[in-house]
Design goal:
Layout (H helix, E strand, L loop, with lengths): L1 H15 L3 H4 L21 E6 L10 H12 L4 E6 L12 H10 L6 E4 L2 E2 L10 H17 L4 E10 L2 E10 L6 E9 L2 E2 L12 E2 L2 E5 L8 E2 L8 E9 L9 E11 L2 E7 L3 E2 L2
Parallel strand pairs: 1-2, 5-15
Antiparallel strand pairs: 1-3, 3-4, 5-6, 6-12, 7-10, 7-11, 7-13, 8-9, 13-14
């Protein structure tokens, strides 16, 4: 009898010791996959081809030079093709593209540049492709080796027809009037290009589609940024009906507003989060 009683007590402890209050678990907190943990301290360049779809040289030697530069600066910077309003303009023209084209000093097309201005080599006797390309690589290498003044790290996703992004900006050295531009770039945009063997089927490389913070080319002021601080922000936009979302990338570029214009500070490449 005593043995049976003991087993009954143990059974009761088992049955009543596993109630709902003891099995509840704390729900896991959802992580913000777009949140920026830290800003990468490194320099990257911005290389640009100023072009026009009615420009035959843009579709021949300019097309080849663009391919070479795009591959050559990979890992050290970003490349984009800018179509501003000019005498060979027709497609992909935006206001911010025209702003950059004029500010960088493009005077003939195609005209290539890096980090705020076009190449400086005299074109009066013709275009020296090799020399212009080398000047761009020299600028890219010099920027990569320089002290990092400021930078932006940006994470983005493309879901349900929207581009959602969060970013953080950090500063490590003195910087006058910091500005941030966030560019939407679309690669392999199919369309007409004069001089190109594929005509209407040409695939335009890294076309500048839009600037997100102000729509004026150089973005907007980064308020409250100082040495040793971070400034964060977020943006959400609809994917334009003319864009192919699978070919979109986001490129943040920092400038310093100076007398007479803007000075290039640094570029980075947005991190796409799946």
């Amino acid at each position: 009898m005593k043995k049976i009683f003991l087993l009954s007590v143990i059974a009761s402890m088992f049955l009543f010791g596993c109630g709902p209050d003891d099995t509840t678990t704390t729900p896991k907190e959802e992580t913000d996959k777009l949140a920026v943990a830290s800003v990468l301290k490194e320099n990257k360049s911005m290389v640009v081809k100023f072009s026009g779809t009615n420009c035959p040289p843009c579709g021949t030697w300019g097309w080849q030079m663009a391919s070479s530069l795009k591959d050559g600066v990979e890992g050290f910077g970003t490349f984009m093709t800018v179509y501003g309003q000019n005498f060979v303009a027709e497609n992909y023209i935006t206001g911010e593209s025209t702003t950059l084209q004029n500010a960088w000093g493009a005077t003939g097309y195609p005209h290539f540049g890096a980090n705020g201005s076009v190449t400086s080599i005299d074109r009066s006797a013709g275009v020296n492709v090799a020399a212009e390309e080398q000047e761009i690589y020299d600028r890219v290498n010099a920027h990569a080796a320089a002290d990092v003044v400021a930078n932006t790290t940006l994470n983005y996703e493309i879901v349900d027809g929207k581009i959602n992004m969060k970013y953080a900006v950090a500063q490590w050295a003195d910087l006058t009037a910091p500005y941030l531009a966030i560019y939407v770039i679309e690669d392999k945009v199919e369309g007409y290009q004069a001089g190109h063997s594929e005509g209407n089927g040409a695939l335009h490389k890294n076309v500048l589609r839009k600037e997100l913070t102000a729509g004026e080319g150089y973005g907007s002021a980064v308020e409250g940024l100082a040495v040793g601080t971070n400034v964060t922000g977020e943006i959400s936009i609809d994917v334009d009906s003319e864009w192919d979302a699978s070919k979109i990338s986001i490129v943040p570029v920092m400038y310093s507003k100076v007398v007479g214009g803007y000075s290039f500070v640094n570029a980075s490449i947005g991190n796409k989060v799946d």
